[in-house]
Amino acid sequence: EVQLLESGGGLVQPGGSLRLSCAASGFTFSSYAMSWVRQAPGKGLEWVSAISGSGGSTYYADSVKGRFTISRDNSKNTLYLQMNSLRAEDTAVYYCATIMITSYTFDIWGQGTMVTVSS
Amino acid sequence: QSALTQPASVSGSPGQSITISCTGTSSDVGGYNYVSWYQQHPGKAPKLMIYEVSNRPSGVSNRFSGSKSGNTASLTISGLQAEDEADYYCSSYTSSSTLAWVFGGGTKLTVL
């Protein structure tokens, strides 16, 4: 069964850091580009970042560029999101998702992990 | 990146058909056939329902269909059922950056 399981969310003060993880199983992880998508409480979906299957190419939304870093460890079938200089507006549920790169589609989604930035 | 424009809410009775629109620009919806639709029930993760404008993933009911005209994409749900009540989001690849996606603001579907 294809599965994505996020972890690492929690409460952090403004200006702080947090690292999210997404453990993948049931498919050949290194063959898939991956992405992070977030959803603020009561709001819509927002694309955050993406990474190629090899990890050699990374992409970021303007809202997180310079503060967040996406990476992956294909030997551990795990995707990461390092979040620095966190702001209140980064408060959201963070989902990881596989990307069907031929159609630029988010295919399989994890259950999400909540990040709350507050003092 | 600006969000795509969706109606905040739509409603329909069981058995009826509804259509949700998703309006963008020539840099996203109008410029590429990379429009997808996602269904999200409360407290759950989004689920892919339509990709590449009109393709259904395996396992998605054929009551769900997609189309596009110019800068506007549409999701149609026919034969409405109670379990279709959910939030629906459109998404498109966009050329406004090196590589990016943009989402619509979401539409709440109520089955009366």
Describe this entry's structure for a reader.
- The complex is a heterodimer of chains A (119) and B (112).
- Chain A has 119 residues and is an all-beta fold.
- Chain A has strands at 3-7, 10-12, 18-25, 33-39, 45-51, 58-60, 68-73, 78-83, 92-100, 105-109, 113-117.
- In chain A, the strands form 2 sheets. In chain A, strands 2, 4, 5, 6, 9, 10 and 11 form a 7-stranded mixed sheet that branches. A 4-stranded antiparallel sheet of chain A has the order 1-3-8-7, with no helix packed on it.
- Chain A starts with a strand and ends with a strand.
- Chain B is an all-beta fold and 112 residues long.
- Chain B has no helices and 9 strands.
- Chain B has strands at residues 9-12, 18-23, 35-40, 47-50, 64-69, 72-77, 86-94, 100-103, 107-111.
- In chain B, the strands form 2 sheets. In chain B, strands 1, 3, 4, 7, 8 and 9 form a 6-stranded mixed sheet that branches. Chain B has a 3-stranded antiparallel sheet with strand order 2-6-5, with no helix packed on it.
- In chain B, strand 3 (35-40) and strand 4 (47-50) form a beta hairpin.
- The model of chain B has no long low-confidence stretch (mean pLDDT 94).
- The A-B interface holds A 35, 37, 44-47, 50, 59, 61-62, 95, 100, 103-112 and B 1, 3, 32, 34, 36, 38, 44-48, 51-52, 55, 57, 89, 91, 93, 97-106.
SSE class of chain A: mainly beta
**Helical amount of chain A:** under 10%
| Rg from Cα of chain B | 13 Å
**What integer is the average pLDDT of chain B?**
94
Overall geometry of chain A comes to: globular
From the spread of the alpha carbons, the general shape of chain B counts as globular
**Strand residue percentage of chain B:** 35-45%
Q: How many helices of chain B in DSSP terms?
A: 0
